Amino acid sequence: MRDIVEYSGPDRVDTTVIEQADKNVHAHSDVFLKVCTHSIEQFLQKLDKLTKQVEDPSCEELSQLLEPIYDMRVLGTSFNYPLISLVGNHCEKFIQNCEKQGTVNTSQVKTLHAFISALDFITTNKVTGSGGPQGKGLLKNLTDVIQGKAESFVPPTPKQDPNIVSQEKLNGLLNNKHH
After folding, report:
1. pLDDT (tens place) for every residue of the chain, 179 residues total
2. CB-based contacts of 16: which residues, under 8 Å, 6+ apart?
3. Could you tell me which CATH number the domain at 15-176 has?
C-alpha cells in the first residue's frame, strides 16, 4: 500500500489509513485460503495427469502447473502468508527449470509433490508470517526433499529446531541447484 499512496497534498494518506487497509485485507484471508485450497486441488490434478505420462511430458503440460501456483504466490504476502509466496516462487522456478530440460523424472515429480504438500500444510494450518519454528521446520523439510535427503515432504512438528534452515538457505539452494 505504501508504494501507491501520496503522503502530502490534498490526497494525502497517513499511516493510520494504510494500517487499516492492511487489516481489512488480512480480514479476508479465509477467502484467500479457499482460493489456495482450490489451486492446490488443480495443481494435484494436473500433476497426476503429468505423472501418468512422465516418460514424455510436453512443455504445455508443465506450463499448466504454473497457473495454480501463480495465483497463490502473487497474493500470499498481501494476506500475511509470505511462506506461500516464498514456496510458490521456488516452485515456479523449479517448474520452469523442468520446462527448459524438456523432461520430468520421478525425482522431480517427488519434488513437485513436496512443494504442493508444503503449500497445503501452510494453508491448512494457517501458518502466517514467517511461521516461527513451524515455518523454519517446513523449509527444512522441503529442503531435505529438494536435496534428496528425504523421499517426501514431512509436516514439521511444533518442537522442531528453529535454527536448522533459513529462508536465505532455501533461496540459495534453489537458485544454485540445477534441476
Report:
1. 555 555 556 666 777 777 777 677 667 788 999 999 999 999 999 888 887 765 555 566 788 889 899 989 998 988 999 999 999 999 999 999 988 887 778 888 899 999 999 999 999 999 999 999 999 999 999 999 999 999 999 998 865 454 445 556 666 666 665 44
2. none
3. 1.20.120
